[in-house]
Write a structure and sequence with these properties.
Layout lengths: L1 H16 L4 E5 L3 H17 L3 E5 L2 H9 L3 E2 L10 E3 L4 E2 L5 E2 L4 E2 L11 E5 L4 H12 L2 E4 L16 E6 L6 H9 L4 E4 L1 E2 L6 E4 L5 E4 L5
Parallel strand pairs: 1-2, 1-4, 2-3, 5-7
Antiparallel strand pairs: 5-6, 6-12, 8-10, 8-11, 9-10, 13-14
Helix pairs in contact: 1-2
């Protein structure tokens, strides 16, 4: 059921936003597999001229496997559209990236926390700084099929910050990024323009950011 819902949402995003002669950013995760399937289908059927820029090694492999045109941010620094999956989405379209939960406030559904990419030598002080300043706890993400921590595509570590309450995410995101040793966070604030939710009844719900 969940996989069919992901597929519906991914197809809707590709069908509604991808047009001929675009540079398309391709994200990572389980939903993106379906988005790239649909993208390749449309490129073949409609003879579209599309250039794909991946955000990760997984996305790069998907693009190559489907025979789509692969590029990078050096050659195409500006994207026309970017499609990615999210773990949780709130009313303002603030996202936690890192299974696609719909919430009024972050943390209601997604319980694994906010991923924070850190340089390896800094993970202990960063973890302590986050817990001291914002509460909760930030734990080093450990690998499943190998001993030791998860290592990102950029050879960094990931802290999963389990926060205790809803925050002003824009301020918190900026503050975390200012901690020495932090590379990036899994918070996407003010970046998403539209979210698609595959529903159990086979429909797709569309959400735009709420207007304050």
């Amino acid at each position: 059921m969940a996989e069919e819902a992901k597929k519906l949402a991914a197809y809707a995003a590709v069908d509604n936003h991808v047009q001929n002669n675009q540079v398309v950013g391709v994200g990572s995760g389980s939903t993106i597999v379906y988005a790239v399937d649909r993208l390749a289908e449309r490129v073949r059927q409609e003879k579209l001229n599309i250039v794909c820029v991946p955000t990760s090694f997984q996305a790069r492999q998907l693009i190559l496997q489907h025979g789509l045109t692969l590029s990078d941010l050096d050659r195409h620094p500006e994207l026309d559209v970017a499609i990615d999956g999210a773990d949780e989405v709130d009313a303002e379209l603030t996202l936690i990236k890192g299974g696609g939960k719909d919430s009024k406030a972050l943390g209601q559904q997604w319980k694994k926390g906010v991923p924070i990419e850190v340089i390896p030598m800094a993970y202990v002080p960063v973890s302590r700084a986050i817990a001291k300043r914002f509460g909760g706890e930030a734990n080093l993400r450990m690998a499943v099929s190998k001993a030791g921590p998860v290592v990102t595509d950029n050879s960094n570590f990931i802290l999963d910050w389990k926060f205790e309450r809803a925050e002003n995410w824009k301020e918190v995101n900026t503050a975390i990024k200012m901690i020495p040793g932090v590379v990036e966070t899994g918070l996407f604030v003010g970046m998403a323009e539209r979210a698609y939710f595959g529903m159990e009844d086979g429909t797709v719900q569309v959400r735009d950011p709420s207007v304050n």
